[in-house]
Design a protein that fits this description.
Elements (H helix, E strand, L loop, with lengths): L19 E5 L6 H8 L4 E6 L1 H15 L4 E6 L5 H11 L4 E6 L1 H13 L3 E6 L11 E6 L2 E6 L5 E5 H5 L3 H12 L1 H15 L5 H16 L9 H21 L8 H12 L6 H15 L4 H11 L12 H10 L17 H10 L4
Parallel strand pairs: 1-8, 2-3, 2-4, 4-5, 5-8
Antiparallel strand pairs: 6-7
Helix pairs in contact: 3-4, 6-9, 6-11, 7-8, 8-9, 10-11, 10-13, 11-12, 13-14
Amino acid sequence: MKVLRNKGFDKSKWMQLPRDVLVGHDVLGQLPQVCDDLSLGNSVLIVTGKHTMEVAGAQVVKMLSRDYSTRTFLAEEISPAVIRKAEEEARGVKFLVAVGGGKVIDTAKIASFNTDRQFISVPTAASHDGIASASASVPTPEGNLSLQAQPPIAIVADTGIIASAPHRLLASGCADVISNSSAVLDWELSHRLRGEPISEYASTLSRITAEFMIRNADLIKPNKEETAWMVTKALVASGVAMSIAGSSRPASGGEHKFSHALAKIAPGKGLHGEKCGIGTIITMFLHGGDWQGIRDALKKIGAPTTPKEIGISDATAVEALLMAKTIRPERFTILDMGLTRESAETLIRMLYKE
């Protein structure tokens, strides 16, 4: 028997955000206190890479071995097979600590999610917003696969370590943050044309973060802790925006689809953030925004602005623009609105004009 009731407000949302965030000089030494504060258990799997083991991994192992039972897992690449091995190791511990770049952190992120363990993010470079987000990217023979996982329960970002990484990685992280500016426009476009739900809080935070990076492009210098501080905070804010939204929408639009298409057509060419930066110039032009300002900011930072600079031919870039609509077709962007080959060729030529 159905009883008619007045419909009340029944909207609900579950947001997962990092609990502890430490960003600054020599904060790596505070990692044991963070672990103690979170009370995650007495055993930990430290996921790192061969190079990042030398940079910070060995130090983390030494610090945590005093009070925790530790295991170490080297993730030299990210793939379904490596993730499965990481999951096997994770089942024998209470929590994970990821010490490294994007591949290491994404491996730990997925393994922790699939085994119902928390993980702490300890980035050794600020190359993209994966250090704080709930999403992960896994390369497959069919192209990059974007997976929802969970954000880190804590982030310990030592600006001394991050500043010592190659500047190209930092510039890539800046470009990834700047790409939020066009990603938000794509989200708003989908909201207007398709009725896709949008979070004003998440979109505002994402936009402010991108504007901050564009406005301060002149201050982005190689091997400076102040620079590492600015970029890392922006990447964390971008990750928080995604957690508020419950998806990567605030930081992933047509420019990311272009990047993933390039990864499929020309694997190994260009860093993720670099390709997103180039894609942002294009999508911002299509939105009628200040694409020249985006390009100028990327140049000041030291990020590439043309396919040639990342070793990709213009013809390949054109194919990526046309392929973009097939990447995550459920995510509507301005590149899904019937771009012709002739228009795509014009857009790529535009990148080289002064």
